[in-house]
Amino acid sequence: MDALFGNRWKTLLAVVLAVAAAGPAGADDLPDHWAFRPVSRPRVPRSVGPTAVDRFVRDRLAAQNLVPSEPGPEAVQVRRLTLDLTGLLPTADRMDAFLMDSRPDRWERLVEELLASPHFGERWGRHWLDLARFADSSGYEADTPRQMWPYRDWVIRAWNSDMGFERFVTEQLAGDLLAGNEISQKIATGFQCNAIYDPGVRYEAIVDQVQTIGSVFLGLTLGCAQCHAHKTDPLSHEEFYRLYAFFNETAIERLPLPGFDPGYRDGLVIRDETAKSKRPTGPATLVLKAAPQPTHVFEQGDPSQLGEKVLPGFPAFLPIAIDAGPAKKTRNRGDLARWILSEQNPLTDRVTVNRVWQRLFGAGLVETENDFGVQTPPPSHPGLLDHLVMEFRHHGRRFKPLIRSIVLSATYRQRSDERRDLAAIDAGNRLLGRQRRIRLEAEVIRDISLQAGEMLSEKMLGPSVFPDQPAGILDARATAAKWTASTGEDRWRRGLYTFHWRLTPHPLKPLFDAPEGVTSCTRRDRSNVPVQALALLNETSFYASARGLGRWAWRQPGGVTTRLDAMCLRCLGRNPSSAERRVLLNLFTAQRETLLQDSAGCRTILAIEGHATDDALADRAAWVLVARVVLNLDEFFTRE
Question: What pLDDT score was predicted for residue 220?
Answer without folding.
Answer: 96
